[in-house]
Write a structure and sequence with these properties.
single chain; 248 residues; alpha/beta; 2-enoyl-CoA Hydratase, Chain A, domain 1; six-stranded mixed beta sheet; three-stranded mixed beta sheet; 10 helices; 9 strands; 16% strand; globular
């Protein structure tokens, strides 16, 4: 049953997805991730959609994984439910990063932890000047997950990736543009419209937009596969979730 935590509407050949869980800063639960995957598959199947824009309801873009969900995983990290639940959340992000249409993340407020992963999964990012982009995993005592290092190093050098993921640096939107993590920084009230305006530019020929994206992905693919990076990080993240749960 759909929970309406992932909304979608078609506007002028553009699929606008809204993460609609503002009470928890659009943090992902397993049901929300399942809903997200369903929405993305529907977009994939609709050949009239030329581009997809993702934004978040409320004050933040996405704060990553729901803390209650992560706490439950930490209680029994190696159970089948924990393993598959965390996998479903990260699979939803990988699905977003691999759908057939070009994607734009319209980022306002926080894109934190796995929420930063989600923003980086998009083809392009438009951010608010005062957006807050941060890794945040180590700050709450857990190992990064979801292919976090892989996604960062798609766009920035090792120093910037280490500063964010290991040493806890935080970026605003202007920093993100300067470092190559985003295309444009605009006032918060203009983020969504700027993203939609860019998406509308390619609406007249959805097939061409999809073909161009396939070529772009093939030619720019990193040497380490993202799905493999997710697997590399899963075990140490589960271990730290267990340690965090059992030392409180």
């Amino acid at each position: 049953m759909m929970s309406n935590e992932v909304l979608v509407e078609a506007i002028d050949g553009v699929a606008l997805i809204t993460l609609n869980a503002p009470d928890r800063r659009n943090a992902f639960t397993v049901p929300m991730a399942e809903e997200f995957i369903t929405v993305l598959r529907d977009i994939d199947a609709d050949r009239s959609v030329a581009a997809t824009v993702l934004n978040g309801a409320g004050v933040d873009f996405c704060s990553g994984g729901d803390l209650a969900t992560l706490t439950a995983v930490g209680d029994e990290p190696f159970s089948e439910d924990s393993w598959s639940g965390l996998r479903t959340i990260y699979d939803s992000f990988v699905t977003f990063g691999s759908i057939a249409t070009p994607t734009i993340a319209a980022v306002h407020g926080g894109a934190v932890g796995a929420g930063l992963n989600l923003a980086l999964a998009a083809t392009l990012r438009v951010v608010a000047h005062d957006a807050k982009l941060m890794s945040g995993f180590l700050r709450i005592g857990i190992h990064p997950g979801g292919g976090h290092f892989h996604l960062l190093e798609r766009y920035v050098g090792q120093d910037t990736a280490a500063a964010l993921s290991i040493f806890g640096e935080q970026l605003n939107g202007d920093d993100a543009v300067r470092l190559g993590l985003a295309w444009r920084a605009v006032p918060q009230e203009s983020v969504l419209e700027t993203a939609m305006e860019m998406a509308r530019r390619i609406r007249r020929n959805p097939d061409l937009a999809r073909a161009a994206l396939r070529s772009w992905r093939t030619e720019s693919r990193a040497s380490t596969d993202w799905a493999a990076a997710v697997d590399i990080e899963r075990l140490p993240q589960l271990r730290t979730l267990w340690q965090k749960s059992h030392t409180q």
